[in-house]
Amino acid sequence: MPVSTAIFWPVIVQVFLTFAIYLLMMKRRFGAVRSGMAKAHDYKIPIIEPAPSATVARSLINQFELPVLFYVVCIALYVTAGAGMPVLVLAWIFVVSRLLHAFVHVTSNRLMFRQRLFSVGVIAVVALWTLFAVHIALQ
Questions:
Q1: Which residue intervals of 36-139 are DSSP H helices?
Q2: Domains of the chain
């Protein structure tokens, strides 16, 4: 597989992480209703949500913040033929950091550990955008 198209594997994994969090959120919300912690109508406008589903809902929101910058830079690097091995390594670092961040968020929710994982992802995306800028500048 060419390195240029390999850039889409971390993108695919990130997308499936988002799908997995959607499923977990549905499971926890249904569980909250079944257990009596919440009523179905509580989710029309979820101002107050039981902690188990609220953390997953927040984790889902996270998948539409920083990862958007990741998706765009991966596509931009592919389109401009800039998706080499350093880019691929950084893309996987980002996705692994997001997988771990999401896992911590929906389990122990240890804030300091979660923050460190988030920081790794931010650094990886900044590095990807920097490589993209350098790649475009050298063309």
A1: 51-62, 66-79, 85-106, 111-137
A2: 3-137 (1.20.120)
pLDDT band at 113 (very low <50, low <70, confident <90, very high): very high
Q: Please state, in angstroms and as integers, the Cα–Cα distance from residue 33 to each residue in 23, 46, 54, 67, 122, following that order.
A: 16, 13, 13, 30, 36
Residue 122, classified by CB atoms within 10 Å of its CB into exposed (0-12), middle (13-18) or buried (19+), is: middle
Could you give phi then psi for residue 51, rounded to 5 degrees?
-50, -45
66 residue type, one letter: L
What token pair was written down for 132?
Answer: 């993209």
Residue 109, both tokens = 């929710």
Range 117-126, long-range pairs (CB < 8 A, 24+ positions): 118/66, 120/93, 120/94, 121/66, 121/94, 121/97, 122/66, 124/90, 124/91, 124/93, 124/94, 124/97, 125/66, 125/69, 125/70, 125/73, 125/94
| pLDDT tens-digit readout, 37-89 | 998 888 887 678 898 999 999 999 999 999 999 999 999 999 999 999 999 99
